[in-house]
Write a structure and sequence with these properties.
Blueprint (H helix, E strand, L loop, with lengths): L2 H8 L1 E5 L7 H10 L4 E5 L5 H11 L4 E5 L4 H10 L4 E2 L5 H10 L3 E2 L1 E2 L2 H9 L4 E4 L7 H9 L6 E4 L8 H5 L7 E3 L5 H5 L3 H16 L2 E7 L6 H12 L3 E3 L3 E4 L2 E4 L7 E7 L2 H10 L9 E2 L5 E5 L7 E7 L1
Parallel strand pairs: 1-2, 1-9, 2-3, 4-5, 6-7, 7-8, 10-13, 14-17
Antiparallel strand pairs: 10-14, 11-12, 12-13, 15-16, 16-17
Helix pairs in contact: 2-10, 3-4
The structure holds 3-phosphoglyceric acid.
Length: about 325
């Protein structure tokens, strides 16, 4: 699969400065257990290369990349150790050209229109926007998005669970990066459960799963009567929907079905929700709905739960 599609689907890339390579594999497992099997290991520490090597060898299901790559030698060492992508903090044309020449997927760092133009003139459209918050945050990216139609950004620097969705709700954001998921202090102290929890919290924020509606299929002959009864009791309006008649967050199905009904869960991003559920082992029904841009708008689980279909809709 395209590397950048995988990165988009992950939505968040933990940025890591690791002091002890022995901590690399437990860290990778903690991230994976939290549903975020990825890490940008920064060359800010002497252990970076060995950490990449161990994660690459022992946790092949964790997408490991190299960050803060400032020299050609670091780039070569990262690739030899098994890095699957390379990130730079800034735009050094000579370095960017060298990394690109190796063929490894890369995200050059850029913070100004001039740097972004240089990146795009080299065919590099996936750009790390760093340091994001100090450079104007998502407002700056929205202003740059007009002239730079092809660019997609990975903002890092000051991103955390609080402002994550300010970025991710903008459809030109590839993913967000940041050290808040796995801080150096937590890694040094081996706080793997805390790191796993921070992954889960970030995913919860990113996907925003919410119970939207319950459709009841069991009494299709009386759908209208039932919908009107509930609506009259609680002051809801009755409206037509695809599968029946809605009264508030309840829907009374008009068609016969083998299932008892459908539980509709909304999410802020159908692509990332589907990818996440697949990562954690959920079986997805192959009948998936997409919009014109190819984004997932609706999908369901393959199996019913307590006789109910589970359907996930993009909000
Ligand atoms: C990076 O290299 O991407 C940044 O240092 C991450 O910034 P943060 O520590 O503010 O997340």
């Amino acid at each position: 699969m395209d590397m950048f599609k995988t990165i988009y689907d992950l939505g968040i890339i933990p940025v890591v400065a690791i002091d002890d390579a022995d901590k690399a594999v437990p860290l990778a497992k903690a991230l994976r257990d939290g549903g975020l099997p990825a890490a940008e290991i920064t060359f800010r520490t002497a252990a970076a290369e060995e950490a990449i090597r161990r994660i690459s060898a022992e946790c092949p299901d964790v997408l490991v990349g190299a960050g803060t790559v400032l020299t050609k030698e670091q780039c070569d060492r990262a690739i030899a150790a098994g890095a699957k992508f390379v990130v730079t903090p800034g735009f050094n044309p000579e370095m960017i050209a060298y990394i690109k020449s190796t063929g490894i997927p890369m995200m050059p760092g850029a913070a100004t229109p001039g740097e972004m133009e240089q990146a795009m003139s080299m065919g590099l459209t996936n750009i790390k926007f760093f340091p994001a918050e100090a450079n104007g945050g998502v407002a700056k990216l929205k202003a740059l998005a007009g002239p730079y139609q092809a660019a997609k950004w990975m903002p890092t620097g000051g991103v955390n669970t609080k402002n994550l969705n300010d970025y991710l709700s903008f459809d030109r954001i590839l993913c967000c990066g940041g050290t808040w998921i796995a801080t150096s202090a937590d890694i040094n102290e081996g706080k793997w459960d805390d790191i796993t929890k921070k992954c889960k919290d970030a995913i919860k924020t990113m996907l925003g799963f919410k119970l939207e509606k319950i459709c009841i299929y069991g009494d299709s002959a009386n759908a209208e009567k039932n919908a009107k009864f509930v609506a009259a009791l609680f002051g809801f309006d009755v409206t037509e929907c695809e599968c029946g008649l809605e009264a508030g967050s309840l829907c009374f199905g008009k068609e016969e079905s083998d299932a008892k009904g459908c539980i509709v869960i909304s999410t802020l991003n159908g692509n990332r929700a589907k990818a996440y559920l697949e990562r954690i082992g959920a079986e997805i029904d192959p009948d998936i709905w997409y919009d014109k841009k190819g984004n997932v708008t609706c999908f369901g689980l393959k199996d019913t739960v307590a006789g109910f279909e589970i359907c996930i809709e993009t909000k």
